[in-house]
Amino acid sequence: MSLFGRMLLGTLLICIPVHASSGWDWRTRVSVAVKDQPLETICIILEKQYGIHFSYSKNVVDLSPLVTVNVQNKPLKKALEDIFKPFDIQFARIGDQIVLTFKKQPTQTISGYVQDNATGEKLIGATVYSPIQRVGTTTNQFGFFSLTLPRDTVSLQVSYIGYKPGKLPVRKSQSEPVIVPLQSQNSLPEVVVVTDTLRQHDQVPLSKLSLSPAEMKSMPRLLGEADMMRAIGALPGVSGGIDGGGGLNVRGGSPDQNLVLLDGTPIFSVSHLFGIFSVFNPDIVKSAEFYKGAFPARYGGRLSSIIDISLKDGDMQQFHGEAAIGLIAAKAMVEGPIKKGKTSFVVSGRRSHTDMLLNDLVQTKDTEGPESKGYVYFYDANLKVNHIFSEKDRLYLSAYIGQDKLNLTWKERPLDTINPSAYLGNSHSKFLWGNYTGTLRWNHVFSPKLFGNLTTNYSQYYFSTEYNYNYKPINTADTSRLYGKYYSSIQDVVVKADFEYRPQPNHTIKFGMGAITHIFNPGVSLFEDEGGEQPSLDTTYDNGASVGQEILLYAEDEWSATQALRINAGIHASGFLVDGRFYHSIQPRLGLRYQLPHRWTVKASYTHMTQYLHLLSNSNASLPTDLWVPSTRKVQPMFSRQGSIGIVKSSRHRMYTMSAEVYYKTMDHVIEYSEYVSPFDGAGKNWDDEVAVGKGRSYGGEIMLEKKKGTTRGWIGYTLSWSDRKFPSVNGGKSFPYKYDRRHDIEIVFTQRLSKRWELSANWEYTTGLPLTLPTASYEGTGDASPYDPPQRDPILDHIGNRNQYRTSSMHRLDLSATYSKKKKLWTKSWTFSLYNAYNQPNPFSYYIVTDTKKQERYLAQISILPILPSVTYAIKF
Predict the structure, then answer these.
(1) What is the pLDDT confidence band of residue 450, given thresholds at 50, 70 and 90?
(2) pLDDT class for 468, splitting at 50, 70, 90?
(3) C-alpha distances in angstroms, 213 versus 417, 432, 646?
(4) What single DSSP character describes residue 121?
(5) Phi and psi at residue 588, in whole multiples of 5°?
(6) H/E element holding 550?
(7) Is the domain 309-770+808-877 a CATH 2.40.170.20 member?
(8) Where is the TonB-dependent receptor plug domain positioned along the sequence (predicted)?
(9) Whole-Å CA distances, 119 to 309, 318, 320, 340, 596
(10) 526: exposed, middle or buried (Cβ count in 10 Å: 0-12, 13-18, 19+)
(11) pLDDT tens per residue across span 525-552
């Protein structure tokens, strides 16, 4: 704040006017003589003799020091300089008064942590506010805050959603970090803290959502869990993929363009069980921040979104936990102190039991065709240890492991046989995919204004498939026994240092550096053939690992230029070394927020992002078979430029919020498989010969109306968007709708608290169909038919038209849940009843062409894999 502003804010009028005349100026000559009198006496004399009125605050300007002054016939300005300069007092004329203030007010910096009073859990995004100065700040990702204020500050207000507000008394010369404990409220809907003076909603950047534990628990609970990723997927501009395919598509981007961080460690696959569950157990998640634009400079490496998730630290005082069991999965979480007040831990685990209760979850049986059956399940586990060395040093260790497994068995019946028990062959396939992560973090408070964090982490995503196939033709002695394996993976090793410096309450500077080693293993295959009289074939395709080295530097500055204008400006610089080629990128970022009267806010942003990793995929679903590959000499890094502008309006009591936003994004060096190339064909060492490189574009508008307070909460969101791609060697060089292009998307999220024990929730979503490529014509070819084709029928050849010229049918789904909870003396129990896909809508997962030999016609058939899924979950919290 400017010196002039400080004088206005820090001044109370205590004038004693004597003369009605105000005919003075700085050249007016004055005389005053005092001996061993307070400075205040000089002001009184000048007021009586010359009609010069003084204004000042006794809490800011001290006029009690005794002085001896003899000023004779001097210009007023020169006289006041001689009198006040030794005491570092500044003066300025405002109207008919002279306002006094200190040239430089004595200040002190208060820093520390805001935490849960009972558990010691650090609270992210808590507000620390000074009502007198009308300035404040929020805690960072580790619950740390720093606030520089005048030395005469008496106390600060501290608040956090779901907690009772608290006060922090300010002691003089306070140098060590302080701990501010807040008491949790038992029920979020009964107490919602809103700090109007700080205007918290105006501080939130454009295109950002922050979720606290209390807010996550108020989300709809499907299959017994209030899943964070499902809440993000219900926001405007975001779609949760297709039913049965995990991953998020943000503003026309692909799932690989989302950077998902778990305690600072990247996660490459974010869903379990075909997207029904996310890999993040909600019982252990502390907070989440989601960006779909206006990316701060500290983030990089992806084009479409950032999801930054922090895990709980563990209770420092006592042991407690949660456990739940439902029809689909069971889970448990325990946390507590290893050494009270010093070291804590939290551990959680989940496992689905669909393989045990529903062994034939995937099953088809036809007396005239093949028979297949199978099952799928997942498990995951989290561990985190938190140790406090001192008030300035803390250490965090966390780890995650998760895996999905799919087993399929298939038997093929012979054609035109009178023996229904005879089979031509059978096969068994096993698919495994999952993530491993490990994180070590050290926090250090260098000074009350400077906070540092050093992180090292490891992350791996892998996919493995193994199959056995036995085939015996009818009426021959020949047999064929095939065995194959396929494996791919990506690994990241990261070292990063982040710093946060807060010189003033309205000014925060963040900067840091890092290095990442990417290890890619896009495909290793083993194939064996031991059948018949032919010699056995044992072939291994070892594509070898490739390594990419990435370095990064960033700096961002967030400050309030005025009370209405807030700016976040930064730059992210990075480089990538692979196969002797070095790519580099300078990425500017800018975010603006301007506060208008009557609770209107205008926000705008521009971001430049670069991504050195690519994902090879030819499906609309985010499947485990998708391959991660690096930029190469032939395939350059992707980069995007996105601009957005939006407006936010809040009601008088902040109960309702309306936001609207438009965006335009361009993408360069995006890739797509070339025509007629499959993922396994393109998995070789020279995969970059099998892809096309081109440009992408997405643009649209988003509207959201949200009700934040009361027993009824929720939001309605609508998105109108376009997304297209253009490749020189695909679709004749013409642009075409991208596979994630969705014209209209509607999301309705509703939560109703009926009483202290019952809560109902619903989530309805609608989206127009996805682009689809289909034959425009077909004709009979000539040549040898397959032994599986009907006799005396030539093969059918298709003519493929323009890429993605058709669309699938529209998709919509209703999810419902009801939760009953009751608090006992030692624990709280709850029952959750939910329906996934409540009216059993058969949304498309994939399409295939079927030939009807009797009717001599072909038609398009749809596969839907997630019907109505009822679930009952019983949970206890102790």
Answers:
(1) very high
(2) confident
(3) 62, 32, 27
(4) P
(5) -75, 150
(6) strand 546-560
(7) yes
(8) 224-302
(9) 20, 7, 10, 10, 40
(10) middle
(11) 776 666 555 444 445 555 667 899 999 9
Closest CA to 335 of 320, 350, 356, 323: 320
pLDDT digits (tens, 9 = 90+) for 363-416: 444 444 455 677 788 999 999 999 999 889 999 999 999 998 888 777 665 544
What's phi and psi for 687, nearest 5 deg?
-60, -30
- How far lies 869's CA from each of 378, 595, 766, 817, 833, in Å? 17, 46, 18, 12, 11
Phi-psi category of 653—alpha, beta or left, where left has phi over 0 and alpha has psi -120 to 50?
alpha
- Of the ranges 502-516, 684-698, 816-830, the best mean pLDDT one: 502-516
- The pLDDT tens digits for 137-175 are 888 888 898 888 877 677 888 988 878 888 888 876 667
- pLDDT level of residue 1 (50, 70, 90 thresholds): very low
Q: How confident is the model at residue 837 (pLDDT cuts 50, 70, 90)?
A: confident
Where are the strands (E) in 342-479, listed by range? Answer: 343-352, 362-364, 371-390, 393-412, 425-447, 450-471
User: Alpha-carbon distance 390 to 396, whole Å?
Assistant: 13
Residues 20-70 pLDDT 10s = 345 788 889 999 999 989 989 998 998 888 889 888 877 678 788 888 989
Concatenate the DSSP letters of all residues of 257-301 into one string. Answer: GEEEEETTEE-S--EEGGGTEESS-TTTEEEEEEESSS--TT--S
State both tokens at 325: 């069991």
**Distance, first Cα to last Cα, the chain:** 49
d(CA 285, CA 272): 17
For all residues of the chain together, what is the average pLDDT?
81
Q: What radius of gyration, in Å, describes the C-alpha atoms of the chain?
A: 33
> Which H or E run includes 683?
none
The residue count for the chain: 878
- Among 178-182, 208-212, 442-446, 700-704, the minimum mean pLDDT is found in 208-212
- Indicate if 212-308 has the same CATH topology as 107-198: no
- Indicate if the pLDDT at residue 642 is higher than 50: yes
Report the top-level CATH class of 107-198: mainly beta
CA–CA distance, 720 with 704 (Å, rounded to integer): 12
Residue-level pLDDT at 619: 59
445 CB contacts (<8 Å, ≥6 apart)?
A: 111, 144, 177, 391, 392, 393, 451, 452
pLDDT of 818 > 70? The answer is yes
Q: Is 307 exposed, middle or buried (0-12, 13-18, 19+ CB in 10 A)?
A: buried
d(CA 83, CA 52): 15
Residue 506, pLDDT score: 82
Tell me, what DSSP letter sits at residue 225?
Answer: B
List the structure tokens of 670: 């995006």
CA distance 4 to 10: 10
CA distance 297 to 169: 35
Comparing 859 with 650, the larger pLDDT belongs to 650
Q: What is the CATH number of domain 3-102?
A: 3.55.50.30
Q: Collapsing DSSP states into helix, strand and coil, what is residue 500?
A: strand
**Which residues face 293 on adjacent strands?**
none
Per domain, the residue ranges of the chain are: 3-102, 107-198, 212-308, 309-770+808-877
Tell me the C-alpha distance between 454 and 518, whole Å: 19
In terms of Cα–Cα distance, which of 659, 657, 652, 758 is closest to 711? 758
Multiple choice CATH, 212-308, 2.170.130.10, 3.40.50.2300, 1.10.10.10, 3.30.1330.10 = 2.170.130.10
Among 277, 267, 219, 222, residue whose Cα is nearest residue 244? 277
Task: Give the alpha-carbon dihedral of 264, 269, 270, 276, to 10 degrees.
Answer: -170
- pLDDT band, very low/low/confident/very high, at 473 (cuts 50, 70, 90): low
What is the pLDDT at residue 187?
A: 44
Task: Residue 694: count other Cβ atoms within 10 Å of its Cβ.
Answer: 20
